[in-house]
Amino acid sequence: MPKIVYKAKPSPEEPVKKKVAHVLREAKKGAGDHTCHFPGCGKPCPPAMWGCKSCWFKLPKPLRAKIWNTYRRGQEITKTPSREYVEVAREVRNWVLENYNEDGTKRCPQ
């Protein structure tokens, strides 16, 4: 399979199905030194993935959808995520910090 070269930024309106296929292909390359973005996790995770599988599914489906909708194929290669993606990543981080303890256990409602 030929190496994909990104000359132009992929459209943020690109179908999620194509983004998923890209992420799964990139995941086969391994994690390198990239880790899960879930605060406190730190497990190795391929750069195209937001987080490891267990942490990804701790997020509510609407937050996962926001990540997919703002992700652009290749942003992990070019290191240029969109402003929208960065905003969503912050929103997700804040949600995690409000809902999970540092050890990854879910907080009890106050």
Report on this model:
- The radius of gyration is 14 Å and the shape is globular.
- With 110 residues, it is mainly α.
- The protein has helices at 16-27, 53-56, 61-70, 75-78, 83-99.
- Helix content is 43%, strand content 0%.
- Helix 3 (61-70) runs antiparallel to helix 5.
- It has one domain.
Keywords, separated by commas or semicolons:
110 residues; mainly alpha; disordered N terminus; globular
| Strand-residue proportion | under 5%
Number of beta strands:
0
- Tertiary shape: globular
Quick one: biggest sheet?
none
Order of helices and strands: HHHHH
Query: Which regions are unreliable across 5 or more consecutive residues at pLDDT < 50?
Result: 1-10
Percentage of residues in helical conformation: 40-55%
Our count of helices gives: 5
Radius of gyration: 14 Å
Structural class: mainly alpha
Distance from N terminus to C terminus (CA atoms, Å) equals 53 Å
Mean pLDDT: 84
Count up the domains. 1
